[in-house]
């Protein structure tokens, strides 16, 4: 991936792309100045009861859910004592796409009374104060728009969003000095320490140019993983504090570059579980301050600020932190892997949930979580969260699922509740307005589809716990080793049903423990699989059919190996048909001829279809290459070799018929063998034949080898295709959904009417790439996610400037050489270039197809299909039946 | 030209030209036909113009390159796709004249009730039946061919053995693999291998960085290499920037 400078240079370019330009900053500063003068000019208001809000003009609504409405206390507006820019803008770590300048407004002391920290009085006053400012500002021409929003979607923290005539957003918080019950308290405390946090961060950032760059990179990293927005997110502020913590602990030093800061921070995240061992920025040990254990009692994730009072990760669920940790671990592996372009994968590739997780499901109605709170007896927690039932129930729901899917799922993640901004004359959004919540499951491929959930022995005390957790699904079972245990057995007959066992678990547990009805859950696991379903009956998605083909083939190849009476031994039997690498869209189904539909011709041992009877079923022949031992007996002449091969075909047919009673039909170029309802087409190969076809004698009498069309074809058939087939067969053993993904993809290509323009082997290799080089993802464990990533790969890969290197069997070293040679010879190479360990320079499966135009068309179709499909899959209100049949210019969904 | 043939679905082009001299007998017609046309139906069709001597079918229209005789029933059979050309040779020149005026009599039908051309499922059934190879026949042909081949090889070998070590008229002796002192095989690969070996031998003899100037030279080259790499990287980045490859979202 190039030299040292190349990597640094790329990082530098990225930083240039995301950071603010100097001219912009000047404009922003001038704008801030104007705001400041406007703010001090806002008139005071007379003192009124908190509940008496008649003084507020009509054009503005209090940005706060005032439930219950009645509360004691008085309020009046006094212009702020202080206006301070806080947060990333001042530190210079503010990055695109959302340039927010946080401005903290300090409410004067006289507004506050004793006990304002109780009953949300502080929050009310804060909201009223904000409402008044909003109303005054809405009259000014200076602003393009004046809107409310929740800070990190926390409904206790409304902020004012000011956009200048243009389009950037400006954040306004407001703060007051006041002293500290966990989440509620934390939300008040946060406001009190805004300024001190700023001082803390700016002291960390002095003489440390790498911090600014490092933070920008970390924020890009978080943004690409959708971790930096919403309630309980890993915000830019949080990551800044983390870097400051690492600086304090000397894990980072001020000499470090941006890249080193990124690396050290990821290293720390990868190895530290803040949901078990929290960290604190508080320096002095003050006996009056709470200790870390106290924080762990109250919060799932603990990161205490310098004051020792505030938990910066108060809203974060343990699941979200584990996701961050998982991503950090994965990223560290990627950075250490020399085969991967870390820059591209870590910082430039987005990981939306649909493409990152194997199964994704939506909770259609967040309001159902209200019932969940009741069912799970979370009323105290609900109060603590100010009535926000979504935030209250979420951690419990996630940990419930995590326990139910333990062993099956590597990660159970959830989307972060997000509330969009609203205009100042509208009612503030309710809790249910967070929209549907999305959950993502990442599977352990070996165990995800297991039908059995084995529990403790019946007489153990844990058995009761197991029974309450699984409800009536749990039953006593006797196992082969004689033990009698509690166990849950999930019903699933076919492989595709087994893949959906997690769905059964999710639905069962949510119903049982959280009162969430099945109709509220929209589970996207196998919606696309209907297009690869085979047969008339409920016979699954053809995966079983493929296994049965391969079994029959294995048996045949054993029989060939042990065939007696051949003059030369069989050295290798290799399949070349797609079904033998599990990628045939519709694998052959065993067929028996219906005798009454045929005329029997005894002399030729032949069944001929009758014209007046229904047409017999087509049995696709499965081609197999049978390599014969090399020997001096082989003639060295191409015509003679053809005859000898024909003789072998005759003899193979005869011997198989004699020794194994198989019906065979020899021909010149092959022998068809009818076995178990399949037809195998045996083709004999002699390893020197391609070489003999290439022989040319020059006028000087020198023997030269030159590729001819015939030799190329023969090599493809007898050398390269068998190799590809066996490699992909191996891949299927490691990744059970490889075949199904391939088949989905082929269906898609066919639906675009482009199947003639791209070879099947090329599609197989593209899909193999997704499994062999999944970074920044993990290898797909469901056909759907594999398919989505295929579309993304096709649409975003830079085919013009890069070869796609598929490291089959990990047999490749020196890929840089391939890249260099590729660049040097680009114009002479196929438009889509795929290199494998055995085919580094020629990209044999894409040589003739696709053409430039077809590739271009494919890319357009892929990105359009991806967009439409993702939209559908992310929208649970939409119809469940997703079928993509893009046709012509537009994508039509049926 | 003539009207298109009705039943032959792929037959669209008809040419009519008189051919004189050159290879085939004077009275011949040449036309482009679709695959469905077969020899006997053609000769049947054209007998109405006069007695037909023969019908020849070939891939391309062209002056009488006489097709070499198909020697094998099983091997090297070409499958033809697309249009073929048929030469209809009449016994008498009058036949050609008659054929020229055929167009006025309406379309010619290849498939008639008395001689139907097989189509659809019956054609497939027939071609399936035809594809089945007679084992004995194939075996016999292969055996015969191999006997000939073995004989030919044996003869050649005997001839080569006789000439072994015998100088030709200029006094040169041909070195073969079979001789007492087998020479290198005359292949490209062997040549390349030898060149490579020579190169290695030469490299082994040279001393590396022995003289001060050699040392300086190596160093300079190394730095030049680094500089070149640096420039290349810079260019690559500039190219990527131009393509907006650094926008993360």
From TrEMBL, chain A:
Residues 101-165, 211-349, 354-514, 529-733, 735-883 form the Nrap protein domain. It is found in: Nucleus, Nucleolus. Keywords: Nucleus, RNA-binding. It comes from the Eukaryota. GO terms for molecular function: RNA binding. Transmembrane segments: none annotated. GO terms for cellular component: CURI complex; small-subunit processome; UTP-C complex. The keyword Transit peptide does not apply. Its main location: nucleus. GO terms for biological process: rRNA processing; tRNA export from nucleus. Belongs to the NRAP family. Part of the small subunit (SSU) processome, first precursor of the small eukaryotic ribosomal subunit. During the assembly of the SSU processome in the nucleolus, many ribosome biogenesis factors, an RNA chaperone and ribosomal proteins associate with the nascent pre-rRNA and work in concert to generate RNA folding, modifications, rearrangements and cleavage as well as targeted degradation of pre-ribosomal RNA by the RNA exosome. This is Nucleolar protein 6. It comes from Buteo japonicus.
UniProtKB/TrEMBL annotation, chain B:
Residues 131-249 form the Ribosomal RNA-processing protein 7 C-terminal domain. It holds the Pfam family RRP7. One of its GO terms (biological process) is ribosomal small subunit assembly. The keyword Coiled coil applies. One of its GO terms (cellular component) is UTP-C complex. Residues 135-166, 216-243 form a coiled coil. The keyword Coiled coil applies. Keywords: Coiled coil. InterPro entries: RRP7, RRP7_C, Rrp7A_RRM. Belongs to the RRP7 family. This is Ribosomal RNA processing 7 homolog A. It comes from Buteo japonicus. The lineage of its organism: Eukaryota, Metazoa, Chordata, Craniata, Vertebrata.
